Amino acid sequence: MSLTEPGPWLLVVAAAHLGFQLTVDLVVYPALGDTTDDAWDEAHARHSRRIAPLVGLLYVPLVALLAWTVAVEPQAVGTWLATVGGALAVVTTAALAAPMHGRLAAVAPAERRDLLRTLDRVDRVRTAGAVVCLAGAVLLAG
């Protein structure tokens, strides 16, 4: 495998993506869930401002690398495993998690708790997608 092929790059980005997802799932969202009602607006606004650039820094290269991998190694099982996992994470983020964050900024505290529980479940789907994506990248590299 050479650095002129997508495999090694996909492996690095998929591993970084999983690390990011695990951090959000196990650290960031639980901390948000522990935020008091009077501190919520500022804490959530800070989270949103800080997380958006990281999502872009990870998702843009992830999508580009998955597309490159599909273009040059369409016969490999690892390609499709990584693509399905990556797509699951990206689509779940765009279709569910991001809109939930928009709603979290405006709901009452009682509704916020329910929405945060739903967001936790959605985030588990994104994390599972990141695991599958990394597994595909490992398979491709092997």
Automatic annotation (TrEMBL):
Record keywords: Membrane, Transmembrane, Transmembrane helix
Spans traversing the lipid bilayer: 6-30, 51-71, 77-98
Descriptive protein name: DUF1772 domain-containing protein
Organism the protein comes from: Nocardioides flavus
